[in-house]
């Protein structure tokens, strides 16, 4: 029974991630519906998996409620409702930690909820730039709370205390960042010649940049062209207008990596291989 539950969970995760990747690559926009699907099905399937593995326990029910509230409070979009659901999740985490049995599955449910708040914090601090990227990792936290072991997959033994710290979603973030960096390097190598490459950025005609998925890294301030960090999407047209008015024909840009696609690749890698760091 557990194998069937795991298979259903993996199929849902992969289908949602593939759909989200397609949208992110094409439009750099992803509907919240993707993450809401994972936020609901993930905790429910994990609850069924826990019950099939160890029987019905109150800790599993508490984690189910907490995981649902934690994930949905950051994907629903209603501020007042978000506060209530976030508070419920915190209470469930406290209950399981203080009064729970301390089992591995109970701890995995707690870790999933902690990671939800961790990714939200990373988004608020600007470490995770895209809202869809943060919501994706939040949804993956509750839809893949453990390294599901089925049919000798993942290849790397992921059982043990380290798996409660380096949870699947964190592994996906790490490997996804690696794939994204390679993607960005490849884009720069294909788009521009060596004279116009600058690390992970490159120089483009302003007209071409306006039609591409890129962030300008230059602006005009006090009558001088200066190098800046990436600006908000809403400010991009104004930046290009100021550069044109200043007489500039080219601009240094950074590629808008469709991060959901690298996260999808990393999800497949984590499901099949696991985390190679566990071999150390």
Distance, first to last CA: 33 Å
Point out poorly predicted stretches. Answer: none
What percentage of the residues does DSSP assign to strands (E)? Answer: 5-15%
Strands in their spatial order, largest beta sheet: 1-2-6-3
| H/E element sequence | HHHHHHHHEEHEEEHEH
Q: Can you tell me the overall shape?
A: elongated
Tell me about the largest β-sheet: 4 strands, antiparallel
Give me the count of strands: 6
- Report the radius of gyration as a whole number of Å: 21 Å
- Please give the count of helices: 11
Query: Percentage of helical residues?
Result: 55-70%
Give the class from helix and strand content and strand pairing.
Answer: alpha+beta
| Multimerization state | single chain
User: Which whole number gives the mean pLDDT?
Assistant: 86
Give a concise summary.
With 280 residues, the chain is of the alpha+beta class.
Describe this entry's structure for a reader.
By secondary structure, this protein is α+β, with helices and mostly antiparallel strands. It is built from 11 helices and 6 strands. The strands form 2 sheets. A 4-stranded antiparallel beta sheet has the order 1-2-6-3. A hairpin with a 2-residue loop joins β1 (197-198) and β2. α1 packs antiparallel against α2, α1 runs antiparallel to α11 and α8 packs across α11 (260-272). The longest helix is centred in the first third of the chain and has 26 residues, at 2-27. The chain is elongated and about 70 Å long. The two termini are 33 Å apart. The relative contact order is 0.13. The model has no long low-confidence stretch (mean pLDDT 86).
């Amino acid at each position: 029974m557990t194998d069937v539950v795991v298979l259903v969970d993996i199929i849902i995760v992969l289908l949602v991630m593939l759909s989200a990747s397609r949208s992110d690559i094409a439009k750099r926009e992803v509907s919240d519906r993707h993450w809401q699907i994972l936020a609901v099905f993930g905790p429910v399937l994990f609850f069924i998996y826990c019950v099939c593995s160890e029987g019905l326990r109150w800790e599993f029910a508490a984690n189910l409620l907490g995981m649902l509230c934690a994930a949905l409070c950051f994907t629903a979009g209603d501020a007042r409702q978000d506060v209530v659901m976030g508070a419920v999740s915190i209470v469930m985490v406290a209950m399981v930690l203080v009064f729970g049995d301390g089992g591995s599955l109970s701890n995995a449910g707690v870790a999933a909820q902690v990671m939800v708040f961790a990714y939200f914090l990373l988004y608020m601090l600007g470490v995770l730039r895209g809202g869809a990227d943060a919501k994706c990792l939040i949804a993956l936290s509750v839809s893949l709370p453990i390294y599901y072991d089925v049919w000798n997959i993942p290849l790397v033994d992921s059982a043990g205390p380290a798996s409660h710290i380096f949870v699947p979603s964190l592994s996906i973030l790490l490997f996804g960042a690696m794939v994204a960096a390679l993607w960005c390097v490849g884009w720069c190598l294909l788009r521009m010649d060596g004279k116009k490459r600058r690390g992970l950025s490159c120089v483009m005609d302003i007209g071409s940049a306006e039609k591409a998925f890129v962030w300008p890294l230059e602006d005009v301030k006090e009558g001088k062209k200066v190098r800046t960090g990436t600006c908000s999407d809403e400010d991009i047209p104004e930046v290009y207008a100021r550069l044109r008015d200043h007489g500039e024909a080219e601009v240094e840009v950074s590629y808008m990596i469709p991060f959901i696609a690298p996260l999808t690749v990393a999800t497949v890698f984590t499901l099949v291989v696991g985390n190679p760091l566990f071999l150390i």
